[in-house]
Amino acid sequence: MYEKLSADEREQLLLALNTEQRDFLENEVKRGRRTVFANVMRDEKITALKSVDITLQEDERNVTDWLIADFDDFGAGNYGGQCACGRRLRYMFTVEHQKTSKRIQYGRDHLSVFLNIEVKEVNGVINELDRIDHELDELLWKIKDDQYYHEYYERLPDKTVVSDSIKKHIEVNVPLLDRQINRLNKHFEIQMEALEEEQRKIQREVGLEKRQAENRRIKELLRQKKKIDDLLEAERKAQSEAELKRRQQENEREERIAQERREKDAERVKETKAQLGFGATFEDIAYFLVLKGQHSAVAISHIMANDFGFDKRLSVGTMHRPFIYFDVLLALKKQVDNGNLIMDESSNIEDCIFYVNPYREEDSSNETEEEQQQTLSLF
Fold this sequence. Notes:
Blueprint: H1 7-15, H2 19-43, E1 66-73, E2 81-82, E3 88-89, E4 91-97, E5 103-106, H3 108-115, H4 119-144, H5 151-154, H6 164-171, H7 178-205, H8 208-276, H9 282-291, H10 297-307, H11 325-337, E6 341-343, E7 354-356, H12 369-377
Antiparallel strand pairs: 1-4, 2-3, 4-5, 6-7
Helix pairs in contact: 2-4, 3-4, 7-8, 8-9, 9-11, 10-11
């Protein structure tokens, strides 16, 4: 339900919190991780170490002196960690000797060998750590969306049954987790059932007046429950409508940008044909399109294929670029070599970006800009 945040995104959202909120969330994550690490060291009955990639000294071989100290998840497809064996890692564990402070970084497989446990047990640790990070992401998303759900706590007639962990969220103004909301809902259902049962008991044991007074109290609680439920439903509906509107506006903006781009490309094609004429070469057209403000080699390839009659085939590669892309690239790089263009540093394997060189030297003939324009028009 809640999108997983990258490490950088998580850090940016944490920095936006006040000190009390940030300290609470960071300490909860640390406490949760320490509990997971302590549980695996205890529950798996680790009794011996196996030296892996690192030579242990005699006083470092006592298993009770080692603890899992830290864990890093660099994200799907990212291998920013490094095992003691040199292998790049997504999941990196740090074990630390409590007396010598020696620290070793291991991946999943070598950690299981080091601690002499099954790999599946390490996978269980990773799953538990993922759950902790997922709950942190859930809270950060809720703070970002200004959704705290404290009303689930406030509506309880009897708040003494609520756990200290939930009360702490209220105290430091941190949203409630979905699992905490579910727990409060169960409390609420039980209390409402108890109130209804109390109503029936009173109706059996006391007179009509007291029964009517108690009935009004129960009805008011039920009315408040309905009011809160209606409010929550209205908020969910408003959020859904706002999200739909935002997506529509984004689609309209993207379509407007695409239309402006198509109009600019059409104007460039018109100017290019008007100024270069029918005798222009492949290289002349590619160069002139850069002069007219089109900087993408892929976009220039599409224009030349669709509007100037060159080869319209597309490459069979995964990028599906025009077949003439590399010819365009060679033509523009020739202009780079001549000092007329520069290739932007953002260029990569997917596309190359070119700009007019603002520092290009005048040629030996000292042609004026007007003379150069007249020369181009002769093409």
